[in-house]
Design a protein that fits this description.
- The chain has 122 residues and is of the alpha+beta class.
- The protein folds into two domains: 56 residues, no CATH class; 56 residues, Nucleic acid-binding proteins (OB fold (Dihydrolipoamide Acetyltransferase, E2P)), CATH 2.40.50.140.
- It is 28% helix and 29% strand.
- The termini are far apart.
Length: 122
């Protein structure tokens, strides 16, 4: 946890270890109990999310360049793009924008991603 805090990771690909039959690790004695593993994982995930929320919010109300990647899977009227720091931004648009670089006004931070609009639009 100290390393996560000191490094200030804004994202982390974390997972809970699962035993794989036939591996030396699966046969080791003194395995960590599942409830302890889950608690540690949850604490790590919360720490990374808290750091991400702080870092992500620093660019709210600025205009940033985003590469438009796809139509948002949850809301078809929105496009999903990626900023130069790999942060995701969702904003109104259409499929013709895919593959293009656009200027996006970041209206709101939602922890791991932003909600925005094309700069200069009402």
């Amino acid at each position: 946890m100290d390393v996560v805090r000191k490094a200030g990771f804004d994202s982390a690909f974390t997972f809970i270890y699962s035993k794989r039959t036939g591996t030396p690790a699966a046969a080791m004695e003194n395995q960590i109990p599942e409830d302890v593993v889950k608690n540690r994982f949850d604490r790590l995930l919360k720490e990374v999310q808290d750091i991400s929320a702080k870092l992500c919010s620093r660019d709210v109300h600025t205009v940033q360049e985003a590469l438009v990647e796809e139509v948002n899977g949850h809301s078809p009227g929105l496009m999903t793009g990626r900023l130069s720091n790999n942060t995701i931004v969702h904003f109104p648009g259409d499929p013709s924008m895919i593959g293009k670089l656009v200027q996006v006004y970041l209206e709101e931070s939602r922890g791991f991603y932003y909600m925005g609009k094309i700069a200069g639009t009402a």
